[in-house]
Design brief:
This protein is an alpha/beta fold. The protein is built from eight helices and five strands; from the N terminus they run E-H-E-H-H-E-H-H-E-H-H-E-H. It is globular. 42% of the residues are buried. The chain binds thymidine-5'-diphosphate (TYD).
């Protein structure tokens, strides 16, 4: 694939969605064609699945059922949005990708890593070229996420212990794969944006 595939990951309230928009704008200003997208969602079919997984009671789905739903959404996103944009030579920035399933479904409620990995290999089979991990104290993240509370609160409602396990899991994953860059997200928006820009331009060069 001629394009560049970037993912942004982190716990809820880490600020990655704001930074994804800023990064996309800055790259476009420099003349790069950019597709900015998100998970769960990023294609019409996957956006329908998004509502099923993010709204409602925390106990609505088991972790196993979630693995299937998130992977189904990702497959559609890949077919309809990501692969076509990469084939056009664009920079694809996705707000979350498979690492979110590895963490939120794979390790936070028992160890389901093997199931996540097998399904990923079978149905997805690609990784981003570069992954920015937005790292933040889970209590601060949860406070931010709760402050903007809307209908999509299923994962936030799983609580601080869940987000704390997720943060540790993300950092462990980042230590195992060279595609990760860890960004300290506990700073003002402009400061974090500068940190992001430094990592991305270093990669582009
Ligand atoms: P996100 O859209 O980043 O939330 P927000 O825009 O409110 O910051 O992600 C929504 C939630 O979905 C988030 O709590 C993490 C969860 N999620 C998973 O549990 N597994 C996944 O594979 C993905 C992509 C997201």
């Amino acid at each position: 694939m001629p394009g560049l595939f970037l993912s942004l990951e982190g716990i809820d309230g880490s600020g990655k969605s704001t930074q994804a928009r800023r990064l996309a704008d800055r790259l476009r200003t420099q003349g790069h064609p950019v597709t900015l997208t998100r998970e769960p969602g990023g294609s019409p079919g996957a956006e329908e699945i998004r509502r099923l997984v993010l709204e409602g009671d925390p106990d609505r789905w088991s972790a196993e059922t979630e693995i299937l739903l998130f992977t189904a959404a990702r497959r559609d996103h890949l077919e309809k949005t990501i692969r076509p944009a990469l084939a056009r030579g664009e920079i694809v920035i996705t707000d979350r990708f498979a690492d979110s399933t590895r963490i939120f479904q794979g390790i936070t409620r028992g160890d389901l890593s093997a199931a996540v990995d097998r399904l990923h290999d079978l149905m997805i089979g690609v990784e981003p070229d570069l992954t920015l991990l937005f790292d933040l104290d889970p209590a601060k993240g949860l406070a931010r996420a709760t402050a903007r509370a809307g209908a999509e609160m299923r994962f936030e409602d799983m609580g601080l212990a869940f987000q704390t396990a997720a943060r540790a899991g993300f950092l462990a994953l980042a230590a195992r794969h060279v595609r990760f860059r860890v960004i300290d997200a506990d700073a003002e928006e402009d400061v974090v944006a500068a940190r992001v820009w430094e990592k991305v331009t270093a990669h582009l060069a």
